[in-house]
Amino acid sequence: MKLSSEVIVNFIPPGITHFDKIYLIGSCFTDHIAHKLKESGFHIRSNPHGILYNPVSIRQSLQEVLNNKQYFTNDLFYYEGLWHSFHHHGSFSGKDPNVVCQKINQTIAEHHIFLKNAQHLFITLGTAWMYRKKSTGNIVANCHKVPGYEFEKILLDIDEEKKHWIELIDNIQLFAPEISIHFTISPVKHLRDGFFENNLSKGLLHILVYELIQQKKLLKYFPSYEIMQDELRDYRFYDRDMAHPNSLAVDFIWEKFNKAYFANTTKEICEELLQLRKLFSHRLIYDSDVSNPFEKKRNEAKMLFIQKYPFIQIDF
């Protein structure tokens, strides 16, 4: 007896290898997958402007990376003791506007170089609801707790946004000729917008991605949203807020991701690295010493792995 609908995910050739550079951008679900990829030894960069949710801000972030945009202090604003950018996550904010600009510009420059040589780009769209600054008419990525009356909440204009995305995709493919582009829709529920409004939002994102794929046949889609909604149809797969997938759900979607993108040899390397990580995750009950048998055993295992796979970066 089947108690849920299985979302079938087939292997997408040629697949991802540990020689590939992988670029990720979008909602907080992007951070989950980026963390998994990094733990598995892949070369990645993610979210040059921090976590972003709406398609306009995500598109603008990618365009700024392509253009290697430079920020100046007059691009920032001061609020409640900190300097902020309406196009960046709060993790970029700070007390010194010059330091904020330096951090923003250094990140964009590094991502510009990485994206140029990337083989895969994963874009996670989170919501079709956006906030427009009334005084400028610009869509903001983050309101930074500025009073709500300064913004207008609006829905994505699919026809208009599709034109911009098609132009951007053309520019990305010219900038990084080897790149393959993959869309996914975040399974995170934006319940603060309301249940009806959240479903409306996800529906509009699906329409946007569908129309882009119809026009650009080389685009790919990974069904993270569908896996969460149709295969993991139970609140035991959500965190306490009943909106974000919990670690069990993320692991499940990660396994589907592996099936879609990793060839057998890639999976084998990931498994070897996972076992090595487990070996190093054990806390010693005595002070670490290279003469201790267990410490010696795991250091030898690490050296053997490095010799076997010198192209993989190990962060432990």
Model description:
This protein is α/β, with parallel strands linked by helices and 316 residues long. The protein has helices spanning 28-39, 55-67, 97-116, 158-175, 195-215, 224-231, 247-261, 264-281, 293-308, and strands spanning 21-26, 43-46, 77-79, 82-84, 120-125, 129-133, 139-140, 151-155, 180-185, 220-221. The chain has a five-stranded parallel sheet with strand order 2-1-5-9-10, with helices on both faces. 34% of the residues are buried. The model has no long low-confidence stretch (mean pLDDT 94).
Key features of this structure:
globular, 9 helices, five-stranded parallel beta sheet, three-stranded antiparallel beta sheet
Topology:
Blueprint: E1 21-26, H1 28-39, E2 43-46, H2 55-67, E3 77-79, E4 82-84, H3 97-116, E5 120-125, E6 129-133, E7 139-140, E8 151-155, H4 158-175, E9 180-185, H5 195-215, E10 220-221, H6 224-231, H7 247-261, H8 264-281, H9 293-308
Which whole number gives the mean pLDDT?
94
What is the share of helical residues? 40-55%
- Helix/strand-derived category reads alpha/beta
State the shape.
globular
Distance between the termini: 44 Å
> Strand order within the widest sheet?
2-1-5-9-10
The major beta sheet can be summarized as: 5 strands, parallel
Q: Give the strand content.
A: 5-15%
Radius of gyration: 21 Å
Which assembly state applies to the chains in this document?
A: single chain
**Count of helical regions:** 9
